[in-house]
User: What shape does this take?
Amino acid sequence: MNNETQKQPIKEKVLSAIKSGQVAMRPRWHFVLKAVLAIAGGIILMLALLSLVSFMIFISRETGAWFVPIFGFRGLHVFLFSLPWLLLFFLIVFILALEMLVRRYEFAYRKPLLYSAFGIVGFVFIGGFVVAQTSFHRRMFLYAEQRRLPIAGPLYRRFGEAPPANVYRGKVTERMPDQFRMKSHREMFQVLITPETRLPYGTDFGDGDVVVVFGDRDGNVIKAFGIRKLDRIEIER
Amino acid sequence: MTLSEKTDEEIAARVQGGDVESFGLLVERYEPKLMRYARKFLLATEDAQDVIQEVFIKSYSNIQGFDVARKFSSWIYRIAHNEFINAGKRRSRLAGFTLNFDIDLLLPYAVAEETADGMTQKRELRELLDQSLEKLTPKYREPLVLYFFEEMDYQQISEVLQIPISTVGVRLQRGKAMLRKFVQSKDSSYE
Assistant: This one.
């Protein structure tokens, strides 16, 4: 920059840069496209988050892990360790990405970050629970089992068919006074009921009922630490 | 109504319609304000001209993205703020510019309502600020400069800095307290 240019007022320099074509005005569609892409990105992130949360709830129910915290600290411990940490990691990453996206807008940045973060987390978890009440994941899981779900199929099979240790879900095939036989997805079990067995919903279950058994396994015999009968709605969703 | 009587937003609308000369009027109106803002915030005059020129060039390039229903001043100050932050990052001697996340942004503050400083108090604080700007970090310096020198309200400062209104109040309160503390330590007769 020579002395002549330096002395030139800013207005003249800016106008001459514009008139000479060195500076161009971005067209309106550029900003419209940016806004559309940001909205589309936000919607995709929200859908991904709803799918992730509802999927995590579904597989926890499917493996029985969802029902074991009722058996006390030991059950809670198993539940926490059965959580799909990889999916949880993606959940956190997606929530952060959505938060960063919405913070660019006035409705979000005007309020403390905690509000928008709670709003997103609340929406994702409430929405995830609502989606998990539908039969969407049940149908997807069935397609996955029948190898008719090409992309998400392996995900359903990997998480849905791998129950946490000491948790067994199955259908009662033969009820006896202190024990019963149960057929799980792939195996037959003999379940022993002892005086220490926790039965939070009582012993009112019989042939054909679906139960979640929490206990130590020795071969095909499970010494039940806790048994919980599932109702029809819990089985179908 | 002559062009010079039109509001910033009306002139911006003309520029959006292709009237380049009208942009010159916006430059005339904002050059002194942005120059003052740059000098107070960047604490250097040597590159303020270049930074301000860049602010106007960016404003022109992006003017189609400006919503004429909103305040033009908040919009151009936001561009200026971003340019100053970039200039600060380039000049590594300005510490504190790279901080994007702050705990102040996270929590709600009930105490940070807009206060009506009296004229005398405002003038006194402006003088204090003028003497001690370099003692404050950019985080506290910038809202004080916008409030006392650019005479913006909390809402406008919130739009320029894109931070919660309550955080603006907190930073102003803390900034003023720091200024008073600094002056008190320098001059024990100050009350």
Remarks:
- The beta strands of chain A are 167-176, 179-184, 188-192, 210-218, 221-229.
